[in-house]
Design brief:
It contains 23 helices and 7 strands. With 694 residues, it is of the alpha+beta class.
Length: 694
């Protein structure tokens, strides 16, 4: 949310007006007095009553048109359009500004022309049409450098910086902001310095330089201390919140960063509501939803997004709409509503694609505009040199009255002109060649994007089909093998009743054990298939009871009395998830820890189960002091049929099942060796509240 620098009512009218008295006397006024009173009311009543400002602005526009006076027509459209722009009705504002600009240019109304160029550029910037915004800003800069004050030039430089900020060229944006800042300080212009400093802070935010960002924000507050205007409260707090949001994104366990970001966004939002700043209200709700999504507070994220969506409807603030669609898609993915997630993802992609091509062109056009401006400055400089040379030649002719010297001067002057013209022709050819190359690059880039998108779609279809075929193969194969396997076990049991030979009995026992192991592997393969094909449920999870049940099952299986199992469960909020998937995770991790316990008599074996709730996530840790992990790449243990020890009796499927269940719940699982040499399995699951999950 970079700050626009535009003219206010103080540019044309009085600084303090008695609104009540103006409204009282308005019905009795006619002619120029009525026009001036409507003009004053349109500007001054906006902060307290937007609807009245629109009514007075509409009447002002009609009175101006009926007057037939070019100056009144231009000022009326400028005032009415400014009200439209402030309430984000940008298309309607442009329909007023552009005709007014043509009238001002035809009638040589330089002051009004400069303000209209700035207003049009700001409106196009709000519509995300950055090519047009730069075009009008550079026109405004040329006019203001010729006829305007240093304060006006600094405003335009700052607004050009904003366009480059929107184009994500933050270094270029900072260069223009610093030019504006230096100009203000050079001429001791205090107005708007705080705005420029906040804009510089936003650029440093995106460059991940938080120290410089916070320094700039503090300087902005110092500039307007002790009583800062509302826009500094709104945008300074928002910029500060962004620094903490990015820090929290880099470390979601940093509660201090979360609290600071939430406090500053809410502070900015409150001030924007009081000020009637629609764009700031939308952006604060969007950034709050991002913060809550990253923290796992899906209910709060949903509320903030709904508020932003209600405000952005009916406006042409395309970038805000795109952010709302993207955050809705993330929210519904988290809640398991994949249909709605896909719906908003498509809306986001459609809007992004419509802006992507134009944004690439705008970047090219921006650099072209800069190059053209520099070329024009070079040409102007050379022309001024020529003009001075001509003046010098005339002076010499008048003083010396020497025809021969005059001829020599004219000859030399002609040669200079020829060289300049040749240089200009060469520069023009270079610019045209660069434009052609940039156009070809854009066409090639667009074609490559389409081809890669098509390849990705084909790859996704193939992957989906392969996964479905694999699931069907596992399911059918497991069922087909279990029948013969059951027959084999039955035959072993019958044979054990009849066979008397000790060696044969030993072989039959081994065969029965092998068949039982194979049956266990087939059962686990069916569990994998069940996880992949099941829909994630949403039931309240009682971790205390579930851990107790799992440990009781292990007790029945039997394990050494000296093995200690420690549990610590601290979950405050209700946690909603799929009970079967959570049970699978706990059973496999605890069973794995017990199975691979140390058999040394010198070690007292233990298994520690810890479940905590931190910053919107559930963390499950299972630690044991067993035989440890000896693989060079522990991550391979989560692959199917990968075994960490010969003690594994499930063919290396248990940890693969655990990882599959964790990923189905949108979580993460990691394995590491602690500093004490213990083995630790670490699971992170996002928290879903009852209202969102339901």
């Amino acid at each position: 949310m970079c700050l626009l620098v535009a003219f206010t009512s103080n540019a044309f009218g009085q600084s303090e007006r008695y609104l009540d008295s103006l409204e009282t006397i308005l019905p009795a006024l006619q002619g120029n007095e009525r026009f001036q009173t409507l003009y004053d009311l349109t500007f001054d009543i906006f902060d307290s009553d937007h609807e009245k400002a629109l009514v007075y602005g509409s009447e002002l526009n009609e009175v101006g048109m009926l007057s037939g006076d070019s100056l009144k027509i231009v000022r009326a459209k400028l005032a009415y359009g400014t009200v439209m722009r402030k309430i984000e009705r940008l298309d309607e504002a442009l329909k007023l500004f552009i005709p007014a600009l043509h009238i001002a240019q035809r009638n040589d109304l330089k002051k009004e022309e400069r303000f209209l160029l700035n207003a049009i550029a700001i409106s196009y910037n709000g519509r995300a049409n950055y090519e047009k915004a730069l075009e009008y800003h550079f026109q405004s800069l040329v006019e203001r450098e010729k006829y305007g004050s240093p304060a006006e030039v600094s405003i335009t430089l700052s607004n050009i910086g904003l366009v480059f900020y929107k184009l994500r060229n933050y270094k270029e944006a900072i260069s223009y902001y610093e030019k504006a800042l230096n100009l203000k300080r050079e001429f001791n212009d205090k107005g708007g310095i705080d705005r420029v400093l906040i804009n510089i802070a936003l650029c440093y935010n995106n460059l991940q330089d938080f120290k410089k960002a916070r320094t700039a924000i503090q300087q902005a507050f110092d500039e307007c201390s002790p009583k800062c205007p509302s826009y500094v409260e709104i945008d300074g707090s928002h910029a500060l919140g962004k620094t903490y949001l990015i820090e929290f994104t880099n470390d979601v366990t940093d509660k201090a960063a979360f609290d600071s970001a939430e406090y500053n966004f809410k502070r900015s939002h409150k001030a924007s509501v009081v000020d009637g700043n629609l764009r700031s209200q939308i952006e604060n709700n969007v950034t709050l939803s991002e913060l809550y999504l990253k923290s796992g507070n899906l209910k709060a994220a949903s509320d903030a997004l709904n508020a932003a969506n209600d405000l952005v409807k009916g406006t042409s603030i395309n970038e805000m709409k795109m952010d709302v669609f993207l955050n809705y898609s993330e929210l519904y993915n988290r809640t398991g509503n994949y249909e709605q997630a896909a719906f908003f993802q498509k809306k986001y992609i459609a809007l992004k694609d419509s802006l992507l091509h134009s944004r690439l062109n705008e970047i090219v056009s921006a650099h072209t505009s800069i190059n053209e401006r520099e070329n024009l400055q070079t040409i102007a400089f050379k022309d001024s040199v020529i003009e001075r040379q001509q003046s010098l030649t005339i002076a010499i002719v008048i003083i010396a009255v020497l025809v021969g010297l005059l001829g020599l001067v004219l000859y030399r002057n002609n040669r200079i002109k020829n060289r300049v013209n040749a240089a200009l022709t060469e520069a023009k050819a270079i610019i045209e060649d660069q434009n052609r190359q940039l156009l070809n690059s854009n066409i090639h880039l667009d074609r490559e994007l389409k081809e890669r998108n098509a390849d990705l779609e084909k790859a996704n279809e193939s992957l989906t089909k392969a996964n479905e075929e694999l699931d069907n193969f596992i399911y059918k194969t497991s069922h087909d093998i279990r029948g013969p396997l059951a027959t084999l076990k039955g035959m072993c049991n019958v044979a054990l009743l009849d066979v008397k030979d000790d060696l044969a009995i030993s072989y039959l026992h081994k065969l029965d054990i092998t068949a039982e192991k194979l049956n266990s592997i087939l059962t686990r393969l069916l569990v994998v298939n069940q996880i992949n094909s099941s829909t994630v449920g949403k039931q309240p999870i009682d971790f205390d009871q579930m851990v107790t049940d799992v440990i009781n099952i292990q007790v029945k299986k039997g394990f050494p009395e000296q093995l200690q199992i420690k549990t610590r469960i601290k979950v405050q909020a209700d946690f909603y998830s799929d009970k079967e998937f959570i049970r699978i995770i706990l059973e496999n991790l605890i069973d794995n820890a017990i199975k691979f316990r140390s058999s040394s008599s010198r070690i007292e074996p233990f298994v520690s189960v810890t479940i905590d709730q931190v910053s919107g996530f559930i963390f499950i840790k299972v630690v044991d002091n067993g035989i440890g992990i000896r693989q060079k790449e522990p991550g391979k243990l989560f692959q199917m049929f990968s075994r960490g020890s010969e003690r594994s009796q499930t063919g290396g499927i248990g940890l693969y099942i655990t990882k599959t269940a964790v990923e189905k719940l949108h979580g993460e699982i990691r394995l590491r060796t602690t500093d004490e040499g213990f083995t630790e399995f670490f699971v992170q699951l996002p928290i879903e509240t009852a209202s969102v999950a339901g």
